[in-house]
Design a protein that fits this description.
CATH architecture of the largest domain: 3-Layer(aba) Sandwich
Helix content: 40-55%
Order of helices and strands: EHEHEEHHHHHHHH
Number of domains: 2
CATH class of the largest domain: Alpha Beta
CATH superfamily of the largest domain: Glutaredoxin
Distance between the termini: 32 Å
Largest sheet: 4 strands, mixed
Low-confidence stretches: none
Strand order of the largest sheet: 2-1-3-4
Shape: globular
Length: 236
Amino acid sequence: MIDLHFVRTPNGHKASIMLEELGVPYRSRVYDMLKGEHLTADFRALNPNCRLPVIVDNEPAGGGAPLPVFESGAILIYLAEKYGRLLPGDARRRSVALQWLMWQMSGLGPMHGQAHHFVRYCPEPIDYPLQRYRNEAVRLLHVLEHRLSEAEYLADEYSIADIACWPWIRAARAIELDIAAFPAIKRWYKAIDARDAVRRGAELKMSDASLAGKPRLDAEQWSNLFGANMLGAVRD
C-alpha cells in the first residue's frame, strides 16, 4: 500500500496519475494548503521541504520501515523503478525520458509556476515579472512543440516524462496560454487526456478550499502559501 500525500496541483497530479497508471493500491490524504496543513512537524518529518506531493511506501523493496519519497520527479522515478513500468528499458530511450523529466523539473514546472504566481496570486500586476515569466512559459512551449513534432511521446514511448509534463500543459490555460497554437502539443495532450488512468488521477479533489482561478487570499492564507508561516515551518 502506498500513501499519497496530495494537493490538486500539477505536481500533485503527477503522482496521482502515475499511481493510477500503475494500478497499484494507494490511499490519498488530501491537504488544505490554505489552512497550513502542510506546515506541521508531522508533515515535515515526511518532507523537510514542506511541499506536496509525498508518497510513503509501506512495503519498500528490501523491507524495513516505511519509506517516504518527496519531490514529484523523484516519486515518478521511484515508482517506475519499483514496478518496472513507464521508464524505458532501452538505455537510449531511458536517458531521453530522464532528460525530458529533468527539463520539466528544472524548466517547465518552475517557470510556469512563477507565471502562475504573478498572473494569479500577485495582489497588484507588476509588468516586469509578468512579461518575464509568461515569455519564458511560451518559450518552453515552443521547445516542447519541437520535440513532439518529431516524436509521438517525449521518449518515443509513453513514459514518466509525459506524465510529468502533461499536468502543467493542462494548467497553461490558467495563465492565459492556448495550446491551440501548438499542433504537436495539442495532438499529444489529447492522446494522454484520453487515457482512463490519467482521467482518474487528474480527478482527485482537494478538501474544501480551491486554488482555481485567481484566488483572493487573506493574510493567513498568503502566509501559509508564500510568507512567514511557510518560512517558519522549515526553521529549526
